[in-house]
Amino acid sequence: RFVVPNSGMVFGIYDAGAYDSIYLLDYFLLRKKLATTKEFYSILKLLSALNVRFIISRGPIFEEEINLVYQDKDLFLYENPSFLPRAFFVTNYKILERNRILEYIISPNFNPGKEIVLEEEPEGGIGYWVLGIGCWESKTDIIDYQPNKVVIEVDAKNDGFLFLSDTYYPGWSAYIDGKKTKIYRANYCFRAVQINKGEQIIEFKYFPKTFIIGLIGSVISCIILFIYWRFKCFR
Q1: Model confidence pTM above 0.85
Q2: Which range has the worst mean pLDDT, 117-126, 156-165, 179-188?
Q3: In the chain, what is the greatest distance between 2 CA atoms, to the nearest angstrom?
Q4: Which of 53, 29, 19 is nearest to 147 (CA)?
Q5: What is the C-alpha to C-alpha distance for residues 66 and 45, in angstroms, rounded to an integer?
Q6: Which of 212, 199, 131 is nearest to 171 (CA)?
Q7: How far is CA 56 from CA 33, 83, 172, 180, in A?
Q8: How far apart are CA 177 and CA 175, in angstroms?
Q9: Residue 125: in which H helix or E strand, if any?
Q10: How far apart are CA 78 and CA 68, in angstroms?
């Protein structure tokens, strides 16, 4: 008995394992770190940051932090009540070298609902006097989610960051109320944008340069083929 990889996509159910045939190296290393971590609380904390609400297991998991909601012979379905939204607002951030981030985000010191880990200092920085504000104090709603576009409505109580638990990848651009802004690599392999206090619309759009190059190449190829066809048929 097993769950067929990628089958949940048909029903709009997302899998933390990502698309089974394509793995980004950063995300693969993150999953590898999870697989080698023995402390269940550290594993669950990171899964919560990845918006994992349900856990499917072939055997029972004897941990108080999760609740058994369904059982069918050797299949167990648990609910994680501490899961975080797919997108949420935080004010606190920490700057670490890339080779230290994985260790930190599974350590007891990391609170994914109140801070993110960046690899570079954000432009302008933000005030440290608002560190107590976490993901539930500000309103964050995903109003449109597509493979190449994500639109999020935010009502932030302070300056801070919008964290999105989608993988960081070249070709994505971010806009705040139509104005382009920087996407930071957060928590090793995810996305974050720096936002100001107040209501705003954040859009993530995927339009890589390689698509434009490929499109130009295709147009040029079609023109060459058309000229060749005209020359062969009407000479």
Answers
A1: no
A2: 117-126
A3: 81
A4: 19
A5: 11
A6: 212
A7: 19, 15, 31, 39
A8: 6
A9: none
A10: 4
Instruction: Tell me phi and psi for residue 167, to 5 degrees.
Output: -65, 145
**Token pair listed for 214:** 């490929």
| Paired tokens of 96 | 């670490």
pLDDT, tens only, 112-142? 988 999 999 998 665 444 445 555 568 899 9
Residue type, 175: Y
Question: What token pair was written down for 153?
Answer: 């409505």
Q: pLDDT, tens digit, for every residue of 68-124?
A: 999 988 889 999 999 999 999 998 999 999 999 999 998 988 999 889 999 999 986
The Cα angle at residue 55 between residues 103 and 114, in degrees rounded to 5: 45
Residue 127: φ, ψ to 5°: -70, 140
